[in-house]
Structure formats: structure tokens, C-alpha cells
Amino acid sequence: MIDDWIANIPSNTTGRPRLLDALGGDTSLFNQINGNYTRVLAKVSPEGNIIYKKIKPNGYLETGADATFNP
């Protein structure tokens, strides 16, 4: 997800930013988190292993040595 989709583009249901909706409308929490998060994709294998990959601000997966995220 690109940054605009997360924090700026309004949701279809409320017209508020999607991040603000996900936080239940808590503007104080929104202000703390907005721009201060890491976009991560979690992939679960059939065996149950989870691999986390970072996502760039433009919505594409990171590549190279910095691509893997360890929570």
C-alpha cells in the first residue's frame, strides 16, 4: 500500500483517512502513527512458517538485503 492510500486517501465509507478509520477515529493515536510505521507483507507457508517482507512507500516489495523484516 502506498503512503497516500494509508494516510491521505479517504475511505469509501466514512470519508476519513483509512489509517484513522482503522484506529477507530482516534486522532491522537493517528498523529503518533502517521508516517511512523513500517509497511510489511506476511506470507505464511503451508507448513506454517511466516516470512515478513518490507514494502516500499510506493507499494512495491523491497528487494535486496533490506527486504526481510524481523518483528
How would the blueprint of this fold be written?
Layout: H1 3-8, H2 18-22, H3 27-33, E1 40-44, E2 50-54
Task: Give a verbal description of the structure.
Helix content is 25%, strand content 14%. The chain is an alpha+beta fold. It has a two-stranded antiparallel ribbon.
**Helix/sheet category:** alpha+beta
Largest beta-sheet details: 2 strands, antiparallel
Q: What does the average pLDDT come to?
A: 87
Rg: 14 Å
Which regions are unreliable across 5 or more consecutive residues at pLDDT < 50?
A: none
What is the compact description of this entry?
This protein has 71 residues and is of the alpha+beta class. The chain contains 3 helices and 2 strands; from the N terminus they run αααββ.
Give descriptors for this structure.
single chain; alpha+beta; two-stranded antiparallel sheet; 3 helices; elongated
